[in-house]
Amino acid sequence: MRYKPHQQKLLRWIALFLVGTFLQLLFYIPTPVLSQNSNSCSNITAPLTPEEQTYARGAWQYFIKNYQPATGFTNSTGGYPSGTLWDMGNYLMALNAARWLNLTDQADFDTRINKFLTTLNSLKLFEDTLPNKVYNAANAQMVDYGNNPLERGIGWSALDVGRILAAFDVIRTCHPQYNDWLKGIVAKWQVARSLKDGQLFGATVLPDNKTLLVQEGRLGYEEYGARGYELWGFSAPKAISLEPFKLVEINGVQIPVDTRDFKSTNANNYVVSESYILDGIEFGLQGELADFAARVLDVQKRRFDTTGQLTAVTEDNIDQPPYFLYNTVYANGANWATITDANQPYPQLRSISTKAAFGWRYLFPDNAYAQKVFDVVKDLRSPDDSGYYAGIYEESKQPNKALTGNTNGLILEILYYKAKGNHPLITSSSASVSTGKPSENASPETPSNQGNSTVTPPTATPTDTPKIVEVAVAPIPPVDSPQSSNLKLDRPLTLIERRYAEAAWRYFQANYHSKNGLIDDRSDFKGATLWGLGDYLAALHAARSLDIITPKEFDQRTRHLLAALTKLPLFGTELPSRGYDTRSLQLVDYGGNPIAEGNGWSALDLGRMLAALYNLKTCHPEYTAAVDKIVLDWSYLRVVREGILSSATVTKEQEGRSLTSVNPETRLGYEEYAARAFQLWGFNVEHSAVGGEYQTALVEGVKVPIQRRRTDTNSKVNQYTVSNPFLLYALEFGLDPQMRSLFEPIFQAQAERYRRTGNLTASATTLIDRKPYTVHSTITGKGEPWVALADNGQIVPKGRLVSTAVAFAYHALLPENKYSQELLQGTTDLYNPLAGFYEGFYETTGKTAVGFTNSTNSMILQSLLYKVMNQQPLIRPTINMKSPWWEEVNKGNSGRGLPNTARQQTKLISDSSGSYWISGSEKTPLVTGTKVTK
Questions:
Q1: Which tens digits make up the pLDDT trace of 56-95?
Q2: 33 vs 339: CA distance, rounded Å
């Protein structure tokens, strides 16, 4: 208390408190009730198959045979009348699942739940605060872990409290008549005593009989437990933040590991499967936890690939001393450790966990490895029909015959999750989704198209950053008659290609802001550029054309994005700024720091968006009016000047004044791409369009373009050559003769390097999860071949990556080329089933480059679409020249820099070399090396 009251006043308040507490508990003393079905809980959209019904009946038998009628509790292990609050939560989840899976009838359910809650409500609490860590299941007495009665008890577990609070939420949602009863139980417990400084605290009894509060939970379980608390209004922000953690490479996978290990805290920082499985089936995997879960599954697959040993690790009871082990991916500095709670190793007793195999199988139903390990345990039931065994020992290959409520309860919960169509069991809006990330690895956003943009690291710290409220944007009204894409596909995707397309689309599912319709440029940062949003729109079009998403989802996402584009603040009321916070829609710099006035605009980003918007209204003309409204709100007076594209940047003087500079764009490949996009809308940008004379450098005996020779600017911005912009140009606009003369030597140099060194080479700008965050794996940069550069021009030792997106694009464009085939084979497995394709892998080590971006996954989807379009350019011509845009251009004198004439400055043609877009007045000479030929 802040002030110390007089003793008499204090006693009076205590008396009032005790009376109030008594009346509160009296109010909540329940009478037995009968459940009423909750529609959401009984909505079985994916009924169990006959085989799955066998699994469910087998798991339910455990609870039938281990039921304690005197208390309504069940044994935590077969025949052993003991149970923790965690075990009780397992039973409630199993009982709810059994009801909706029709393993038990309503009368039996009500009998069981009434008896359970009656006993639970009357439990003796540790120090009259919270339930003891463990009770005798047969008589509800407080006991120690040896089931010996103890008058005082041994303390409480905050994680166990979180587990049962999650189960309580499911019961009150699915059986609302029990809500008041459950509220009364929670009110009786002093839950707040287990929270301190935003973290979860358990209680333990020291040898001198003093009670010590101890922080509980490590990465995975800590977040899960805290979310249970949040369901009942108890906040634990630090516990749910993911921090502190680091990434540890195991079998080529970056695994998130809590930095609080056994040596420093006397508590294990084990990485196991179960916490992520529970989070997935109950809350739905989202954000970083979705990525973490996929990594934890992937590393177990990698261990199998390397050793041939099927792997599904988590904590389990075993049928021999020491009776309980943590089979881990990582614990206390050791990979694949099998330990006791006291960190004693037992590697010879590592096992394949039945519950883990079930969990991964149904969380990732399309994962071949999850199916493989599931097939080994799916029939691992005891011969006497007492439930599922805990697993199979890796070394002896014999069953681990421990029978537990944890294994069988989780199996039932998982099967119920499947029956609900893989919808999370908990839908309460109060559960948080963490967006935390390693503090030392926080990744500033750098748009992949910004060749040498300067990254300003975020200046705020987690403790002083105000919580950002996500802005809600309503989608534009439904269009008159939503149509399917009018693209004609040459063939459907193969099964393998469809798997790749679905994996790439996962990025756009995992990083979607459902309130405003935006997508993050990269998965570890809440920010977007106009280039990134153009990537997203192109990915949307590809996903719909490939039938990866339904027409309804395409329409909803498209209308939402178009609405969001109208809400983005413009720089100087002219054009979209360089960066936005995808939650607040605030203007930010490339480090995510808010900038009230913005930091300029990028003609390149604008070109990317214009190309995507043009194709949207061409292939889906029902959105034409909405698209034209967006682009007519922008002013083009300074972005197109004398046939050249220019971008605006902002610098600050020492006095604090902001100065805006507008300079021509000169980044090789990007300028040419953006210019072609502007031409689609009628802009005359002939001096930025591909053509003219290019300076070259000799790389692997090939003349590779490094810079356009020009007299209109002295800018030396382009300091490197990479593949990205040339590939995007080729996919969307085709290879006109001028672009082909640039494209071919860029590809040839990389193929020649592979032939000379054996190093797969797919040079690109890619994003990674650590400093310098952006790496340009160049063909030539700063006058040197094959250097890796950071944004600031510094060389990144051993930083070269083989780009996944580049590999897919080259194979789409050159499917018969042996080198492009080699590239594709080296990168097709570089995806995370929940997060999309990784950026690539490091040339020197072969290790996966951890990072997920909009740009990479968009290009993969576009590459797959290009394949099934018979290698036709993805940008299709429009025949509607009477749209609002062209009508406004026809009026003239707009005052906003619109084109002078209402006609496109580019057109699609076909010849013996294929189809491609060319400038409308095609008088530009063909470029070959540095020579100009008419």
A1: 999 999 999 999 999 999 999 999 999 999 999 999 999 9
A2: 45
Cβ atoms of 272 and 255 within 8 Å: the answer is no
Closest CA to 200 of 183, 188, 182, 218: 218
User: What would the pLDDT profile of 703-735 be if each residue is shown by its tens digit?
Assistant: 999 998 877 666 555 579 999 999 999 999 999
* CB-facing half-sphere around the CA of 69: CA atoms within 13 A: 3
Q: How confident is the model at residue 446 (pLDDT cuts 50, 70, 90)?
A: very low
Query: Per-residue confidence at 929, pLDDT binned at 50, 70, 90?
Result: very low
Query: Rounded distance, CA 868 to CA 493, Å?
Result: 7
Phi, psi of 762 (to 5 degrees): -140, 85
Distances (CA, A) of 638 to 109, 647, 900: 71, 8, 15
Give the predicted TM-score (pTM) of the model: 0.58
> Residue 237, exposed/middle/buried by CB under 10 A (0-12, 13-18, 19+)?
middle
pLDDT at 394: 95
Residue 336 neighbours by CB under 8 Å, 6+ apart: 250, 303, 313, 328, 329, 330, 347, 350
Burial class (CB in 10 A: 0-12, 13-18, 19+), 469: exposed
Q: What residues have CB less than 8 Å from 711, skipping those under 6 apart? A: none
The answer to whether 337 touches 302, Cβ cutoff 8 Å, is no
Neighbours of 49 (CB within 10 A): 10
Q: How many CA atoms lie within 13 A of 88 on its CB side?
A: 33
